[in-house]
Design a protein that fits this description.
mainly alpha; elongated
Length: about 130
């Protein structure tokens, strides 16, 4: 602070130090709101999870598995037709994205729906070729 500013503050009776000033109303309201917010507790957890960058290390991205699966020719054609249908609706998607979406739908089904969905699959055939007898 300059000498002129200090003299002006002394004449008006205003506080000269930062600690002596009253807190801004917005800060007080924010502090009260944060103090009143309950923290979510996860059952069985003894301490809160660490946040990214808390110890200077980066979090690793989950690795994606790369496997090859064979589909019967007619199901592969349906996958392509579904992809084209979505593109006409303005939603570009890759075939792998369709498979992932299908997996999410299967996981969300109850047991009866899941049995019904997989009952129509032909077991023992891959890529349209019947299983060879040994």
């Amino acid at each position: 602070m300059t000498a002129a500013t200090t003299a002006k503050l002394a004449r008006t009776g205003a506080a000269t130090s930062v600690e002596a000033r009253p807190a801004a109303p917005r800060r007080v309201r924010l502090a009260k709101a944060l103090a009143a917010t309950p923290t979510a507790k996860i059952p069985g957890m003894t301490r809160p999870p660490k946040q990214a960058g808390s110890n200077g290390k980066k979090l690793k991205k989950p690795k994606s598995g790369t496997n090859r699966y064979k589909l019967p020719d007619d199901e592969y054609a349906r996958l392509g037709a579904l992809k084209q249908r979505l593109e006409l609706l303005g939603i570009p998607v890759r075939k792998s994205g369709l498979l992932r979406a299908g997996l999410l739908l299967l996981v969300a089904m109850n047991d009866v729906q899941l049995k019904k969905a997989v009952a129509g699959l032909v077991v023992g055939e891959s890529a349209g070729h019947p299983q060879r007898a040994a």
